[in-house]
Amino acid sequence: MNEHQKFIEEAIKLARENVPSGKGGPFGALVVKNGEIVGRGVNQVTSNNDPTAHAEIMAIRDACQTLGSFQLKDCIIYASCEPCPMCLGAIYWARPKMIVFAAENTDAAKAGFDDSFIYKEICLPASQRTISSVNVKPDDFFSPFQTWTKSERKTPY
Amino acid sequence: MNEHQKFIEEAIKLARENVPSGKGGPFGALVVKNGEIVGRGVNQVTSNNDPTAHAEIMAIRDACQTLGSFQLKDCIIYASCEPCPMCLGAIYWARPKMIVFAAENTDAAKAGFDDSFIYKEICLPASQRTISSVNVKPDDFFSPFQTWTKSERKTPY
Question: Any chain A CB within 8 A of the CB of B25?
Fold first, then answer.
């Protein structure tokens, strides 16, 4: 069994075992660096009352604590299922080198977990999305960025 | 001053004050339900070592704790800046009724916070994205979903 297979099996096992645990949906993810697991996550949306608690998000947060970094340089994310747009966005911010996933979005959809609607919405211009988005721009709308630019205390990211 | 302006000013204030606090980038967000603030969030990426700790994600998580729910029914999200794809994905999962934002993505880009690359990437087919994505499908890849379908303990979401 090659390394990808070993870790993807582990992610699938996390996903499967998450159902009887009652924590949330059937999803698991791992973060691996240099052949070692540095973060684990399972879906905890319903048990944590947290719609952002998808497996990949939890695994990224866990790995970042382990590594003491807000970046996942040289890491691989293994996910039991293809990431949703939120998780894919998180993956881009975390900057691992690769994503390995098992079930495809279309497989998840067959089990009632369909994120194709959200992919479509995110790729539409804001004016055409179903959640209405209103731009309200007071005079000081740029002041946070001005404060940031002038600040000597900032950590760029 | 109308209600949208009052709350967007508050989100901008959170964003501005977050810079000298040293917590993270110049971003703030609120969740409002029936005219009351039920959640607040600021960017804490660098101080928490958490690439997912954007203001909107933090505000959604905070509001869900306040409301004891993983959904933000009838809520409005006020953000000092137009949401990035990760946060927009989180907003879709949380299902508020509206987003109100101040700075546009193009304003943020002028201050060095450019998410247009991530929007582009998410809307590409996986095979064309810069973070490579590999599908590894062992025989039991669908087993988490089978376990979910058969489970009597699940909370659908």
Answer: yes
